Amino acid sequence: MVKIAIGQLCSTASMAHNLAQCQTLVKKAIAAGAKALFLPEATDYIASSSAESVSLVRSVQQSEFVLGLQREAKNAKFPINVGIHEPAQGGIKVKNTLIWIDEHGEIVQRYQKIHLFDVEIKDGPVLKESASVEAGTQILPPFETPVGRVGLAICFDLRFPEISIALKRQNAQLITFPSAFTVPTGQAHWEALLRARAIETQAYVVAAAQVGAHNEKRRSYGHSMVVDPWGQVVAKLGGEFKEPEIATADIDFDLIDKIRSEMPLLRRTDVYPEI
Ligand SMILES: O=C(O)CNC(=O)[C@H](CS)NC(=O)CCC(=O)C(=O)O
């Protein structure tokens, strides 16, 4: 059994301000006895346009935000999973990535978001992530951490169960979906999707989310949560932003093993392809 924390905040275009919010979250997570902190998608910044996003991006070696979090991780010997932006080749677009900073402060794993959020919902959000973001092309194999074997995915990837199924096949015990969901799609789908991914993978689903108004145009749904491998919501935050908040959950490895042995989900790869 090991405790994890999810952090919920409202990132703006100020990386210094976002780092300060994360430093608060690290303190709260450690005080609560957590052994790792999971932060949302795009925690380094949320811009108000594609052009602003491209103008803000820095390499990890030059990002005050990432360097600051690496210092936190190293000083406290405390792993941090955080969604950031990184420059793409050519300097025209950015990558939407998720990095694992280990207890030595080193970036040891990196996943690049595969599915980009291009939507045009009538009377709802219109967003074209692909205007500024380059899509990833690989599912990252799950990796060992002090809080279990972790598989990485980001936000809109949640709607594509293939990633979760592939991570489960490779024995992930925790699957992350750091997010910045829109309010209407969050109200309609967020919890149902997260619980479905947990139930079908029999893994913990760890979903740290952005919350509140980032700028005049963008607001996120919040409701960060952790779902256990039986589909129960075991940690949950709200949908209003007042201050950076954490919630904690115990990761019970025996529960994962018990559920997987009591109800084996053996795939019929003779009927449909293995993912
Ligand atoms: O823009 C950034 O910097 C950070 N990226 C995001 O906020 C992304 C792309 S706009 N948001 C989503 O994928 C929301 C998905 C969603 O809301 C759904 O699937 O319903």
Automatic annotation (TrEMBL):
Keywords of the record: Cytoplasm, Hydrolase
**Alphabetized PANTHER family for the sequence:** DEAMINATED GLUTATHIONE AMIDASE (PTHR23088:SF27), NITRILASE-RELATED (PTHR23088)
- Similarity field: Belongs to the carbon-nitrogen hydrolase superfamily. NIT1/NIT2 family.
The name this protein goes by in its record:
CN hydrolase domain-containing protein
Task: Give the InterPro entries listed for this entry.
Answer: C-N_Hydrolase, C-N_Hydrolase_sf, Nit1/2_C-N_Hydrolase
Keyword Hydrolase included in the entry's annotation: yes
Q: Name one GO cellular component term.
A: cytoplasm
Query: What's the superkingdom here?
Result: Eukaryota
Subcellular location(s) of the protein: Cytoplasm
In its keyword annotation, does this UniProt entry include Protease? Answer: no
GO molecular function terms listed in the Swiss-Prot or TrEMBL record: hydrolase activity, acting on carbon-nitrogen (but not peptide) bonds, in linear amides
| Gene3D superfamilies the record matches | Carbon-nitrogen hydrolase
**Pfam families listed in its UniProt record:** CN_hydrolase
